[in-house]
Amino acid sequence: MVAPLLAEQEVEPWMERHRFIIRDSAPSSPLTKQLHTAKNDRVLVMELDFSSEGFVQGLLDTVSNKGAAPDARMDAFFQLAAVDFAFKRYPQALEKYGACFNYFDQKGNKPMQALCLSGAGDTQLRSGKPVEALKFYQQSLALGVEEKNLPVIQVSTFGAGNACLELARHEEAEGYFKHADDASAKMHNPFAKCDAMEKRGLAAWQQGKVEQAIDIWTKGKELAKQFSYSTRAISILGGLIELSRKAGPSRRLVELEAEKAALEKSEGASPVPGGQRA
Q1: Cα 111 to chain center, whole Å?
Q2: Tens digits of residue pLDDT in 142-195
Q3: Exposed end of the chain (fewer CB within 10 Å): N or C?
Q4: Is 268 left (phi over 0), alpha (psi -120 to 50) or beta?
Q5: What is the largest CA-CA distance in the chain?
Q6: Does 19 fall in a domain?
């Protein structure tokens, strides 16, 4: 199958415009060995490591390479901060985000400054420090508003809303999630909008605004289903079911439970108990 694509002989002019990319994933890599032996100058063989370990090592190599461009080294350092965060190495992540912020501050790169602040906010929030997290999110939001940067505004307001939920400042949380909702809509990002709508509904519910929570969640659930965002639709349905149960047995409760069960079955998803929202 591959041999005719290797063009070992002269080819027609129209063929010169064509490129074929083939991944040899077999453990013994028979194609790669043959291509090395053939020494076909029309073929480029690249040895790529797609493993997580290889990715992290590539970042470390870039950071330690003094001959690389400073911006490239700092971009790699920023990604290493995210790796630390993912592996719950929160002090190391916070230190890296701080170093990146100082660098981008000197460069006058406000969008990257804002992302560093949001990353620090995520780190503090996950570390159980919502007060400190909120401060970072607010600083990031200030830069986002100054630059009229919608992605930064969306990320920072969503994070600030989560911090306010942790602090039981539900009215503030609702306001932040409303801004995150609006920013997501302006970016035409229905997935981020559904996430924000779920949290908006939760903040409203915590304030006793039950009808408002039901309205927000119902619209969010329908939007999630429209864009096949089943995980979020199922999660929102869990909240609606929990609210309905508090009101007592009803036809509406039966309908919601049936809708949730059907979604879980169609997606092969694990059941999400009512109220367990991401």
Answers
A1: 17
A2: 999 999 999 999 999 999 999 999 999 999 999 999 999 999 999 999 999 999
A3: N
A4: left
A5: 79
A6: yes
Centre a 10 Å sphere on the Cβ of residue 63 and count the other Cβ atoms it contains: 19
What pLDDT was estimated at residue 26?
Answer: 67
In this predicted structure, what is the pLDDT of residue 274?
Answer: 37
- Read off the tokens for 211: 């009808």
The answer to whether residue 117 sits within a structural domain is no
**Residue 159 and residue 137: Cα distance in Å, rounded?**
6
Q: What is the pLDDT of residue 278?
A: 38
Domain tally for the chain?
1
Cα 222 to Cα 64: distance, rounded to the nearest angstrom: 49
Q: Considering the domain boundaries, does residue 134 fall inside one?
A: no
